[in-house]
Amino acid sequence: YDLIYPLRSLLLCGSTRTNHPIPGDAGRLRENCVTNDEKERASLLFRLVVDLIASMGMFGADQMARSCLCTRFICEVLTVPLLTWKIWPSSYEHLLRNPLGNE
Description:
Shape: elongated
Distance between the termini: 27 Å
Low-confidence stretches: none
Structural class: mainly alpha
Helix content: 55-70%
């Protein structure tokens, strides 16, 4: 099952799939343009995808498959406009310290 596509969709359009990737009032509202509930949903899915990719190395998954998922994650998720406003900082802090499980 592909979790990257639903994560990107949730981050871009929200849970109702009706939000704009960059809300019209984002400049004024900043982080408040995304509700706490939306942030929580996106953060949970974000952490799940990161943990899944990181765990592939521990379970001996094919290096090529893991590299492909890492590339997709970077291209499809980390490029989402206003990403750091749409998820809680705790969701990506671990990623910054230990990228996708690499030591």
